[in-house]
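Hi C.,

You asked whether I'd gotten around to modeling the 217-residue construct. I have! Everything is below, sequence then structure, no commentary in between.
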Amino acid sequence: MRTRLRSVFDRLFTGCTYLVVAMMVAVLLVILIPIFRRGASAIVFRETIEFRRLQFDMNDRGDIEVLKAEEKQENQFRSKVYKQIEDFKQAVDTAALFDRADEIYRDFNDELRQADIPRTQYLTTRIVNQQIRDHLRAAFEAGDPNQAKESLDSVMEFSEDQRFVGTVAEEFFELAQQFRGTLEQIDLASQRKYLAEVEQVEEIVRRMFGPKPGEPV
């Protein structure tokens, strides 16, 4: 009797052991199969859009409509990535910010010269235009975020001034809002460091995804 019970228990134990092993293998397969699948897709070469374009141009192989749709989607993705990089570069590149503020200042003066307004209004508006530009420049070169915000507040005081509504000068206020957002994210003392790092990121992106859309290869 004891021998039979022992034999039954041995078989049960062996069966449970096999069941546990089978369950462990099943769990491992569930985890590892997606990993191997992704790894294989990373190793196995797939035709790139550029390769398919080359095949079409040289051998007339492929569907041109599908190719155009893929190129359009790729360009949209690259445009988005490069725009994000460019926006961040502009936010931390003091020289570029100065140049942009000066450009808006000059463009608005050009608009002002062509406007049919009294000379007194023309002169006073030019003075205010210069003051806005100078406040922006002061914000860009401020080493202290509180000082920068004070200068930006001085700029935004004119955001609803009818002399500037609907003119190129509105870009002053867009630039001010953009830089205000930047102040919440970066340390002004590290602007040069950020600029160097984002340029490195841009170079990596260029190697991975190619040049900006419209930029010569």
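If it helps when you're writing up: The mean pLDDT is 77.

Thanks,
B.
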